[in-house]
UniProtKB/TrEMBL annotation:
GO MF, one annotated term: sugar transmembrane transporter activity
Chain ranges passing through the membrane: 6-24, 45-65, 71-93, 100-121, 133-153, 165-186, 192-213
UniProt keyword annotations, A-Z: Cell membrane, Membrane, Repeat, Sugar transport, Transmembrane, Transmembrane helix, Transport
Organism of provenance: Rhynchospora tenuis
Protein's name in the database: Bidirectional sugar transporter SWEET
Gene3D superfamilies: 1.20.1280.290
Superkingdom of source: Eukaryota
Gene Ontology CC annotations of this record: plasma membrane
Localization per record: Cell membrane
Amino acid sequence: MISTGSIRTVVGIIGNVISFGLFLSPLPTFVNIFKKKAVEQFSPVPYLATLLNCMMWVMYGLPFVHPNSVLVLTINGIGFFIEALYLLTFFIYSPRRLRLKVVGILAAELVFVGAVMGGVLSGAHTHHKRTEIVGILCVIFGTAMYASPLSIMKMVIETKSVKYMPFYLSLVSFLNGVCWTTYSLLRFDLYILIPNGLGALLAAVQLILYFIYYRTTPKDGAKQNFELPEVTPTSTPVPLSVVTVKN
């Protein structure tokens, strides 16, 4: 008979694959930036937020914080690397003022993560206490990222148009949230459950809105570029989705 642990591992691997796809979703945007040699009106903030989210979940998955969380550690480690590449590309092709902004926010994030790590290692001497401290922070950041599409949902309701809420992005975000929620329930983990359960719920609402307002959406044929930083759980996500639209 297949054990719960084996099922959880399989679900976690599937979650890694889905989250990896979400991390790669902004790639067309950065290919466009590379071709034009300019970031234009795109904002670095979603990628900086996702980078911080990944760093916190990497910390959560470390053996001396929360043992037996290899799948949380791997996907967020990969996410950290991908987001770092996005930010490097953004830094290269952005004007000096925006570069200084990126460097300033990134420095603040590194100081924050270093302070949390130092505080946890020096002040919390059990896995339970370390998990609790880092887990609460992960819930805060993960929930904030999953709640970010609320403004897009409000726009959909007001305009009765899903033009700026791509269906497949909402669908994959829903599958990602469901997958990591299931993972958290197979061996109960409240800190993974809260942000991903909320993420699945919000993505489900997006899908419902899509089906309600799809027919009333103007078909103007305009090209759109969507960027998703992703989340991931948080675990994963990524994570976590934000949509920026360039007309």
